[in-house]
């Protein structure tokens, strides 16, 4: 197995594991839907699940057009994840309030809608990418030639995750709920860096960013479990202790 194939297997396996966590994480989000940022966590979680699920689905069919379709839907999930993350960060009780929140939310939602629409319809205008018949670095994924819209999408997505991480960084500096604001800050900036690095180093569809975003949903789930003061199942106990 060459390095490209090994990378494909690892990324697909990781994305699949994240999708499998959707059910228990969603159940926890629904239980907290009336508190703090429970609803935004659900949106964030669903975006991450779609992002990872359709990212991995590229390996299901060898035809470039099918891989490109799955990647387009994965892009939708990525934008929803970024939007959900920003809402999650801005509605948390530990983070500072955004100035003119309604205006910020409206502007971000409008940009997200435009981004999603253009990304999904890119086969008709090629503003985001052009599909190629060449093999990608990781053979399971579509091979695309990035265009200007692709880079704008990357910077927008990086900005969403970076903004959310910044809100938690301020809370961490202020000493608010230190254990989790620290984790959200580090993982949030790591996700933003993964988006940017994957795009610059491996332009196209190969990316570690969907998996990095999955770490944020895991932190949220563990935080919710801890606040319930419940005894975690044995398989998760070591992970909870590690994250704290």
Automatic annotation (TrEMBL):
**Where would I find the Histidine kinase N-terminal 7TM region domain in this sequence?**
10-211
Q: Which positions are tagged coiled coil?
A: none
Pfam families per record = HisKA_7TM
Q: Does the keyword Acetylation apply?
A: no
- Report the superkingdom from the record: Archaea
Cross-referenced InterPro entries = HisKA_7TM
Annotated GO MF terms:
kinase activity
The alphabetized UniProt keywords are: Kinase, Membrane, Transferase, Transmembrane, Transmembrane helix
Tell me where the transmembrane regions lie. Answer: 6-26, 38-57, 69-91, 103-128, 148-171, 183-202
This protein's name: Histidine kinase N-terminal 7TM domain-containing protein
């Amino acid at each position: 197995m060459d390095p490209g194939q090994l990378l494909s297997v690892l990324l697909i396996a990781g994305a699949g594991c994240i999708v499998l966590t959707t059910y228990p994480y969603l159940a926890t989000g629904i239980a907290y839907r009336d508190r703090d940022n429970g609803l935004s966590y659900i949106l964030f979680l669903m975006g991450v699940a779609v992002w990872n699920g359709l990212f991995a689905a590229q390996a299901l069919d060898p035809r470039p057009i099918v891989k490109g379709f799955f990647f387009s839907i994965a892009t939708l999930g990525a934008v929803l994840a970024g939007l959900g993350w920003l809402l999650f960060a801005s509605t948390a009780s530990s983070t500072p309030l955004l100035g003119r929140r309604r205006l910020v939310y409206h502007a971000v939602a409008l940009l997200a809608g435009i981004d999603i629409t253009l990304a999904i319809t890119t086969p008709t205008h090629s503003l985001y990418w052009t599909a190629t018949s060449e093999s990608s670095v990781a053979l399971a994924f579509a091979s695309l030639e990035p265009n200007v819209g692709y880079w704008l999408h990357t910077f927008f997505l990086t900005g969403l995750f970076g903004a959310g991480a910044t809100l938690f960084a301020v809370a961490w500096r202020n000493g608010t709920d230190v254990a989790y604001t620290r984790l959200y800050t580090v993982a949030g900036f790591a996700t933003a860096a993964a988006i940017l690095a994957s795009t610059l180093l491996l332009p196209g569809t190969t990316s570690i960013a969907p998996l990095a975003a999955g770490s944020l949903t895991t932190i949220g789930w563990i935080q919710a479990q801890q606040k319930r003061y419940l005894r975690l199942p044995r398989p998760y106990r070591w992970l909870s202790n590690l994250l704290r």
